[in-house]
Design goal:
Layout: E1 2-7, E2 15-17, H1 22-31, E3 38-42, H2 48-60, E4 63-67, E5 70-74, E6 82-83, H3 85-88, H4 98-105, E7 107-111, H5 124-132, E8 136-140, E9 143-147, E10 156-158, H6 164-175, E11 180-184, H7 190-201, E12 205-207, E13 213-217, E14 229-230, H8 235-247, E15 252-255, H9 263-271, E16 275-278, E17 282-286, E18 295-297, H10 309-317, E19 322-326, H11 336-342, E20 346-350, E21 353-357, E22 366-368, H12 372-384, E23 388-392, H13 395-400, H14 404-410, E24 414-419
Parallel strand pairs: 2-15, 3-14, 6-7, 10-11, 18-19, 22-23
Antiparallel strand pairs: 1-23, 1-24, 3-5, 4-5, 7-9, 8-9, 11-13, 12-13, 15-17, 16-17, 19-21, 20-21
Helix pairs in contact: 1-2, 1-7, 4-6, 5-6, 6-7, 8-10, 8-12, 10-12
The chain binds ligand EPZ.
Ligand EPZ binds near residues 26 and 307.
Amino acid sequence: MDYLEIVGGKKLSGSVKISGAKNAALPIIAATILSDKEVTLTNLPNVVDIRTLLKLLTMLGGEVEHNETVAHINNGSITSTKAVYEIVSQMRASILVLGPLLARFGECEVSLPGGCAIGQRPIDLHLKALEAMGANIEIKGGYVRAEAKEGLIGAKIIFDKITVGGTENIVMAAALAHGTTTIINAAKEPEVVQLCEMIADAGVKIEGIGTNELSIEGTCWKPLDFQTVEIIPDRIEAGTYLCAGAITQSTITLEKVNHQHIRASIDKLESMGCTFELEEESITIHPAETIKPVSLITIEYPGFPTDMQAQFMALAVMAEGESLIEERLFENRFMHVSELNRLGADIWLKGSTAAVKGVEKLYGADVMATDLRASSALVLAALVAEGITNVRRIYHLDRGYDDLEGKLSKLGADIVRKKEA
Ligand code: EPZ
């Protein structure tokens, strides 16, 4: 197993190119199932989760030609509609094939994702919405078996909670349904917006893109013909590098970003004393002289993203004063707290709120990554910890950060990937 050895204390400088967004690419790859023709995707991040979902498509019978950032996918040859446990258990986002498989083939079996390090993460809202669209759903042997032999029917869906994956699954299902589907309380994250735009560009009439109410006129089972899609920049990767600049008190530039998508992180970093120069597709962060404490609550877009909570906690550890961080989306997304405390942080948890008392120094230690964003928080802390930090179990990082150690090394960090003896 690989681990990262990081020697803290190095200043960063220069620029880093932000990759395509994993969480935009995953639903877009799933959406290619709605087509029986070749689709080209560009600016894919070179990360494990993308390869896992592409592997699932080939297991279903799809043809995939993948070369780091570009994939040519032809799902005209799909022969199976079963997403097996072997893949879904590796990556929960595989559940995103449920809506498109059911919409295109009228039946499918998708393994239930099971447990997750950051919370329960049920899929009840996805299933309830598909049932409202006329699907028969049964859970048996660890699989969701869904059937809509005459095709799905447009319906009015009111989500009890805003769900990114739920909205994506239902938008994809609705694209081939008979009639119009309305989604109330839809997610409006940039990744959901790009999925909607891809489907709208293929001729499906969608109203309300980028709002909490979507209306999708289905094609009555006619497969879609997609244009080439360039994946949007990864707003969470961008936010993570901004935190790298802030925590090491370095000036760095991020290339290929969408400022609008990272507004919540920029605002919080400004409140912590950082300043920014914005160009059309790049952003330069100038660090705070002393990092001020922060108060933040994770919430749906355009609010502060849960996927940036761990990284901001690492930064708050180095602030002068006490920060308060409340996690509202996932009940267990604080696994990084005890690992940060092993490096010398002073963080107290009470329910869904963490009180972070700033410390003067962190000291290198062995720490263990527990999920994707928790892992990047440990890397951030390690960049400023005195001595050597070994971040173990970095397969979590490899799922979602494209060449993290390569990009950080290029910025001047002392970080190397090593193999456990
Ligand atoms: C997406 O997960 C992202 N994953 C997550 O990123 C991100 O943290 C999350 O959205 C929130 O922004 C991908 O896009 C692949 P949700 P998703 O459905 O879609 C509850 C990362 O680090 N819920 O919006 O699974 C759920 O438990 C990952 O890149 C139900 O109760 O998240 C949570 O509390 C981690 N029932 C809330 O809704 C359901 O049926 C929001 O979850 C569905 C969700």
